[in-house]
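Hi V.,

You were right to ask for the full record rather than a summary. Here it is.
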Amino acid sequence: MIEAKELVIGYRAYKNERLVAGGLNFTLPDGRLTALLGPNGSGKSTLIRTLSGLQPVISGDVLLDDVSLSSRSRVELSKRLSIVLQEPIRGTHLSVFELVALGRIPHTNRMGNLAGPDLEKVYESLNATGITALSTRKISQLSDGELQRAMIAKALAQETHYILLDEPTAHLDVLGKIELIDKLRSLTTSKTILFSTHDVELALQMADHIWLIDENGTVKTGAPEDLVLEGSIGNIYSRNQEWGFDNQTGQILVPLINRSGGCSVEGSGLAYEWTLKALKRTGYAVNTGSGTAGPTIRVAASGARPQWMLVRENTVLEARSIQQLLDLLSSRP
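Predicted structure:
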């Protein structure tokens, strides 16, 4: 396992030190997917670099399987731990296959020759990340998302028990993020994985464990649901308790527009729910029932298509879409 004991992280240049976080004591749960959450500048990247041995500790210690990182050789570390950072890589003349094959260096001979098992591991890693078709392409020709997948494939080819990833979903679309995290989750049957992310909602739904670092460098750890219930997630990701993380739904809510006037809405089903969302998004005070001052909106299914009726001052107007309804609602009677 990876443990931090009275760990202080930061940067040291000559006689100057810039501390990022201190007094850290925690353990990375073995065989689980752990998400590292925190606002910009809280030290997520610094912590990951320190846990991997790429950045020296200011004080305290990091233990890898009960042995201090500082006591392990680079070869030892590279066989136990792999890391994917955000920094751009050099050598853009490499093909995707060649990049992923670099992950086998700790396991090859002095000449770096790839044997049969090494090649099998490279192809297995390409397939696992869904980029086999890109194997001959130069990495300079990849999109940011494709390059990120290639770097993760390289980490898989390295065949380590621990994998640390700094914002691996940063350049992926929504479905790509889910696919990647789901893949990481499936790997925890034989690996221990830590990844940092800004995607709070996905982390709460898919991670086994959360490390939460705040702006003061304090780290709280636990099950996602426990950190929600104790208010730790809401304290970091909310603004004046008016918008941000919603403890009830686990969603990030945005500031709402305040528009004078309100309306009542009647109906049920999917169209009704999305009508409510549209009205709240555009600033209307919504009451779910009749008898309220202001116009009334009735949402009903008409065959395969929903239908909206706007009743205002003895006038009934029909809309065939939510946008049409909003246009009618904002127009003068």
